[in-house]
Amino acid sequence: MNYARFLNKVSQARQPSPIRVLTAILQQSKPSMISMAGGMPNVGTFPIESATFKLSDGTKLEMDHELMKKALQYTQTPGVPELVQWVKGLQERVHKPPCSGVNWDLLITNGSQDGICKSFDAMVSPGDKVLVETPSYPGTLAAVKPMDCELIPIKSDKNGLDPSDLENVMSNWNVSDSDIPKLLYLIPNGGNPTGHGLTEERKRKIYSIAQKYNLIILEDDPYFYLQFNKPYVPSLMSMDVEGRVIRFDSFSKLISSGMRLGCVTGPKPIIDRISLHMQASVMHASTLSQATLLLILKEWGYEGFDNHVETVTEFYRQKKYMCLKAAEKHLTGLAEWDEPSGGMFLWLKLNVPDTYNLITVKAREKEVLFVPGNAFQLDEAQPCQYVRASYSLCTEEQMNTAFERLAALIREEQSN
Ligand SMILES: Cc1ncc(COP(=O)(O)O)c(C=O)c1O
Fold it and tell me: Are strands 345-350 and 371-372 parallel, antiparallel or unpaired?
């Protein structure tokens, strides 16, 4: 594929920082190399010597002085090399990206949000049209809305983004049109806010539409490992024979959201550009966070990682059941919903014309918080019947009380 058409002028103009290049050379060279080149501080002056992490199963992981010295120092922009290798191995294992013709690479980012934001920064040019699954994650909308581009909504339902709507929208252009959309953003699993996920059939259709119209797909998948049904629906990246999928993974939902670690995986020419942006902005994701994550992942191995994923998914599966039970008890006849296929959200359609005032004013007065559905629309000013409820943190009792309060508010609204 020729990626020049997808990269904007700013991204194409980025040049490697000579100092960052030296960091990579130094980290890969033999101990006999003498460097008077880098501007690295001397870690001997840093006050932290070592640390011990106690895992929830009682395992103690030691970050000794040697490891700690590395963890406190600058590292290469793509990430701590050993962690990059581990995560590449995970991608190979889980997604088996087709290698014929696609030279893919990976970059550790400050959470998946950083990769998403930098991808839009690299690929959106003034006046571009960008296809966005709706409803959508407000973090992405916050990144892309202020850009000088037109966002085109693509509908979704309980099986994720609707390929027939995508085809319908794209059929307004010929592939040779200069103003044809180039990018499609979607959340394939456990959607935020919907909890819905794409079926394999839909993914294949979406991929073939992307091929037909020469689109790049931004596959934002932080809830991939929180799918409630096994086997996992194969990712779009696993179908990507042409190098048109950029995939965002996150450790936020599995290991720590505060470590701010995720990764972006995709065709090397695009990943290289995002890496150059990182060189010029944050330089790299926190080495201390990366070293801590690596310590845990090395202790677990891929099998231990799978076991942990299973434990976390089971936790959310139980929470989902509690939430559905509470919704049935209190909201039947007052709202509609579909069972989430993954993630941590229940997307409720209330039997009222608009939820904004109900949720942002009246519900708060009754001491219950939800997110009004308009926050997930491209045009927040449009009325919206939906509400996002998260079942991650509440106990079963709290879920029941929350929905009981919501039910009373809906009844009150209906009687007005
Ligand atoms: C759909 C989606 N994408 C991206 C993110 C960002 O996650 P991270 O913590 O990895 O930056 C979130 C976080 O909630 C999300 O829901």
Answer: unpaired
The first and second tokens of residue 125, run together, are 């040019």
And the tokens for 296? 């845990």
* Nearest Cα residue to atom 6 of ligand 1: 113
User: Cα separation of 237 and 249, whole Å?
Assistant: 11
| pLDDT, tens digit, 9 for 90 and up, residues 215-271 | 999 999 999 999 999 999 999 999 999 999 999 999 999 999 999 999 999 999 999
Residue in the block written with tokens 């008890």: 329
Mutate to test the pocket of ligand 1, among 133, 192, 259, 264 (most ligand atoms within 8 A of CB): 192
Neighbours of 128 (CB within 10 A): 19
The C-alpha atoms of residue 316 and residue 204 are separated, in whole angstroms, by 28
Chain-centroid distance of CA 395 in Å reads 26
Domains of the chain and any CATH numbers: 4-302 (3.40.640.10), 313-415 (3.90.1150.10)
Q: Is 175 helix (H, G, I), strand (E, B) or coil?
A: coil
The 10s digit of each residue's pLDDT in 359-408 is 999 999 999 999 999 999 999 999 999 999 999 999 999 999 999 999 99
Omega before 231 cis (within 30°)? yes
Q: Which amino acid is at 163?
A: P
Residues flanking ligand 1, CB < 6 Å: 111-113, 137, 139, 187, 192, 220, 222, 250, 252, 257, 262
Q: How far apart are CA 43 and CA 71, in angstroms?
A: 10
**Residue 40: how many CB atoms within 10 A of its CB?**
13
The predicted pLDDT at position 101 comes to: 67
The count of residues in the chain is: 416
